[in-house]
């Protein structure tokens, strides 16, 4: 259950309207790593949480904070769009090349669809998608997703910070940068805690490694020319998981054959066998098929 | 530039056809964390790499390996679909309830669209999307994305491993589990290396922290009832970035006001002011607007 | 700014696990008219609101309530998935045809991707999309969108209510049905209030009707055979907007010509003119083109 | 079955080419509330119509009219693109800043993909989606969707009308404004007719209200600070459905508990229980599970 | 402009309801090569047609026919859904395993969203997308797209024909198969006509081939092991375009270098240069950059 | 299995940075007919190939070549973005209108999301979609898809060639034009070979034509006014498939009735029958329904 409080947690006032900045900020609202993504991601992780209460509580705290970030950015975008050059554009454009550039650079949906308000979309107009968010039911996996999300997010905020001149917008970005710093610290701490508790850096830590091909679990295969990749920390020495030794192989191990598929029922109308030569691999009912008993 | 070699790196032969398993494996081909995603993600990261050669070379190695994983899974799916109950289904369904369940559970596009071959889509049929992949130009951010991707990926493989009984498919999954183990080790090692080199765990490490609101960069705000979140490693003690001290605040800091938007030009046809009362906030040309000089 | 309260507003406990019902409920979480849609729709409308405070406050109240609805449904889905037949499926399937049907009918991502938790997607697996939501900056238009959303939503809940037997799930649906009843009443009341205040049922009410083709603004054109459409309330009598008289025309008015496009620059590589006959409409620089002065 | 007639119903000739207006008009062709949406929406509603013939006939009439609207707009866009500055852009751009703005503002797919023709997409380039349309099999619900669609549509046309200077385009928009006026009248009339006939404003009107939680069906819950929402017509007095009395509650009713999910099978590889403390909620086979008999 | 005629061109009556067949037919309505795709594709091609009238007229004829095909299929789906087992499913499922399979195999949106009507989506539920259609402004290119579309379409119809037992549905599919035969003939004829008229099989035929690298325009590069590809008609002899001789090269020509990207401004916050070694390729203002004059 | 070779097959160096050209080239990377599409399309066709080895080998060769094309274009885009005007944009914009146009025309995700690198998306920002690719299991159908893809692709390259002035980019486009020429030749040759071998131009060639409505398989129906369509090669004479005679019918054949759907169970909550008149078509349990035996 949620409650709404009217104050913004931090102020969201631009120095002056600017529809290009409004377009940029959409990335932080509805982009792959925008605030809608992190809010929804932490909510679904919290709602699916079957683990310790402190993780669930923490997830709900941060998710709820992020909802407020969407609100601050949505407010900022609405204000940046006030006074946008939306009327009689052709005339305005001819008078002043800067206005011309703004008109042609503006997101047209900001005017036509939203009437000078924010959109649930990114900076090029792709609508936000549920496909962005990650909630797997495994907290170590998901906290790594979160650490990535806050890293990508802070990077994008830093870039926009340099692209613009508006002090008011920069003040809000300075807040977001700080909160993304904290959230990176937080997820990194929580990842460390879980790794220590689970006794492994591998997700999932509980899968019985006897069931994987552990003999190939520490190999680096050199699939490209050159051996620069052999110089990294991943190429030799003890593996981070403490259970093996990295090895760099100049040539990949190959165990498989050239695959050759069987023909299937002609009722699927695949390419018929060539008439010009003897066809050796015609369709044969699979003898071990689970659907037709062989008796 | 790429070359193709006909052998599969590892074998991809099911014990017997099974269209339900074929449907599950689609998640590993074309899902958010399937092999198409990691292959394309590492390719775009490699192609955008402006850093040291060893990272670029390594990215291209792993990307190229993952392309081969898509191939192994695509081959496996094609073989699992051989002998699927695609003809005269109604009759077949009435005879045998297990066939009935298989028919109704099968992905219909495996038959209708692909003629018993794999699809560039996930286990419920969503087509693979370029929106899944991450390539930001910042390797530390992206390697965290990669560590997450391999964590989610290995988790999904482990789950399918338990859901099915087919030994041949399990043999391939055992390979994928091992490679995902290695790749988790690899990205974790590379992350560690970059963090040490950049001297910070924060992405981006080069943003001048004087420009962020560092005074709020170590606060945990308790946005939900209960204080379980105060028990985590993120709530007190020195922050992982070594530049501050975590603090857990029972109440979030609030600096902002209730936002109140200005009316905009009536030509956007927003809701007109109420006729029943004096309207104090009619549309006023913004005095600092960049487009209309005030003179 | 938001706060989270740990209690669910209403209880969300199924009588017993059932992954098929879990699949159905996804429509109410992440479908076009699911709770994610209405929550986000009302939030964006509230954040864009430039009108009277009572509308903004009301939008934020209902939006916040709907966020809690997502939470209740997400919790219900997680519980319906407990004990789903996810292990050794083939064997289980052969033993019991009902389990077979459940396995083949289950959303595979509920197991593989979410580890038996809810997904931000609809009942066939399409991820939720920002493209579903409506926030135009005109409250009368948007409240009509909301009335539609609550109508579609309650209809879907009513259908699922009849499809299932689980008392615990039905208890939650009974709550949603009541709240959707209230919300239909609410939006209908708000629509009525705005129509009365704006003095028109047309959106936007402030567009100067002299600028539209008012002479054709009350015509019904019979574009199909048969005249059953002439029997509706829309076909004769005074129009609801009070400014005209409906008329039903057996034949549509036609004012336009057959369109014939000009050829464009050959550098766009359209189909070249036929060699077999005299081409009368070759590419001619448009004399009034805005880009090339004619002097 | 359909027939095509070569005349456009109304003329579609711009005064002069203008690729920026072409970009705007795409919203009316392939946007969420563009003509493709309403045409397809009314078609699917007509084809699914199990009710009275007059509704089906009317739906097919209006749908068929809207197909002609797509055609008029597509023709207009093609003409607006004639003579667009597509060749040797860099040189052209340096000569004239207005051309520079046009080049950078133009939808690049208008040239590269469509060769100066219209696109089945909106003004920022999102392809039209079947996910936009609504056809539920309940006419009252769907006519509300239609009333909303025509309201959003007319709003967007009105906005573009103000943004541009081209008389020829405005003439077509004046037609669309009038037809959207009529269609708003039409759907409002049809909604009224159905509400009267069904004897209720609630969708679906036939759901037995004893089965919903009628005791909470007239409550407004104040989920946000402030009581401005209590001043609306939805907050007190008789409800529009005539079956209850609105009440505004300063505090939401709360009936539920804090949710606590059960652990599920370890084969789903969720987060394992903490090793540091006694775990009280380990995985227990659900006693009422439908799949495993308890005997 | 369009007209609607009430008769279906061909009958659309199943022998008996069957929601699984309804699910399959969705591929023919809203799949990548369903009737919505071809109808819309031919419409946009017709509306963009700047060539001879006979092509435009023909495109509009076929497009209009295809709209009627959507109608026939939509009607068929609605009828196949009548009497679907939508109520009290759990009980019904336990009684009869075939009903169990049907319930679990049914598209849940057919009931929940559409109330037993058709959906603008494919057989796995992906909404139809404007991204499927092709209209480039070059008829030869587009007629090849059309020939492909009718080929894929007829293939899918043929597959469904074999999958089902219902005579009434098969009668409609027999009509679609015939029309797809004709349309394949038609597009193949039109392609041939255009190729002859344009004097080339290459699209676009009017591009000056002096501007392409004609020296590499007839090479087959063997990028994979094995030389089976050398046995095709594409590997030797005169090229179909009549302007060159195919040659099969055992090794691809290589002209390029290893790419090495420049560092960009540090304000984009890419990975900083390693501190451990001399960095030779730091960021240098590009001397030929178009934005900063060098004076 | 794949290998990576560090050299680009052909050089990818622009004369100077230009972010507008970078935006255009995205169409060739991640558009519907970009190199990601053809690479993935040929891979999936190759992996699904159940036919002769020479086709599979050839598909893998061309697919592998196309992967290298993505790499060349990705490299080119990265270089075109070097030195883009990303910092302090407002100030830069005011100084120079050309820079203003470039800033407003640039894809903002090139800076904010990718840090001046390529994106897996098209020229307006739509992410690449698995929905673009075609792999049906029938080679004749798929080779027609490929011929179309290379036609659309070469057309787009030709257009961009004319739009830009950069010699270095044009050099790469000249390579792509040549390779697209070859690939058109190749697919046309392969189509011809398959048509000859299968003995039919119809896909699928093996469907028994007795089962289609062959009596209507050569009819052109004139669904629009005017008879220009009767002048094409598709309107008279022997059909290309050699099995019939084209005929042009001034009026379409009509065999169907007006469809009238049955009412379905009231539990789906469709529109209830009108109270004002005798309802003749109430819901009747379908006597031949497969789910409820009539005994």
TrEMBL record, chains A, B, C, D, E, F:
<feature type="binding site">
    <location>
        <position position="35"/>
    </location>
    <ligand>
        <name>Mn(2+) 1</name>
    </ligand>
</feature>
<keyword id="KW-0479">Metal-binding</keyword>
<dbReference type="InterPro" id="IPR039377">
    <property type="entry name" value="Mn_catalase_dom"/>
</dbReference>
<feature type="binding site">
    <location>
        <position position="66"/>
    </location>
    <ligand>
        <name>Mn(2+) 2</name>
    </ligand>
</feature>
<feature type="binding site">
    <location>
        <position position="183"/>
    </location>
    <ligand>
        <name>Mn(2+) 1</name>
    </ligand>
</feature>
<feature type="binding site">
    <location>
        <position position="150"/>
    </location>
    <ligand>
        <name>Mn(2+) 1</name>
    </ligand>
</feature>
<protein>
    <submittedName>
        <fullName>Mn-containing catalase</fullName>
    </submittedName>
</protein>
<dbReference type="InterPro" id="IPR007760">
    <property type="entry name" value="Mn_catalase"/>
</dbReference>
<dbReference type="InterPro" id="IPR009078">
    <property type="entry name" value="Ferritin-like_SF"/>
</dbReference>
<dbReference type="InterPro" id="IPR027407">
    <property type="entry name" value="Mn_catalase_C"/>
</dbReference>
<keyword id="KW-0464">Manganese</keyword>
<keyword id="KW-0106">Calcium</keyword>
<feature type="binding site">
    <location>
        <position position="224"/>
    </location>
    <ligand>
        <name>Ca(2+)</name>
    </ligand>
</feature>
<feature type="binding site">
    <location>
        <position position="61"/>
    </location>
    <ligand>
        <name>Ca(2+)</name>
    </ligand>
</feature>
<dbReference type="InterPro" id="IPR012347">
    <property type="entry name" value="Ferritin-like"/>
</dbReference>
<feature type="binding site">
    <location>
        <position position="222"/>
    </location>
    <ligand>
        <name>Ca(2+)</name>
    </ligand>
</feature>
<feature type="binding site">
    <location>
        <position position="57"/>
    </location>
    <ligand>
        <name>Ca(2+)</name>
    </ligand>
</feature>
<comment type="similarity">
    <text>Belongs to the manganese catalase family.</text>
</comment>
<dbReference type="GO" id="GO:0046872">
    <property type="term" value="F:metal ion binding"/>
</dbReference>
<dbReference type="Pfam" id="PF05067">
    <property type="entry name" value="Mn_catalase"/>
</dbReference>
<feature type="region of interest" description="Disordered">
    <location>
        <begin position="263"/>
        <end position="295"/>
    </location>
</feature>
<feature type="binding site">
    <location>
        <position position="69"/>
    </location>
    <ligand>
        <name>Mn(2+) 1</name>
    </ligand>
</feature>
<feature type="binding site">
    <location>
        <position position="226"/>
    </location>
    <ligand>
        <name>Ca(2+)</name>
    </ligand>
</feature>
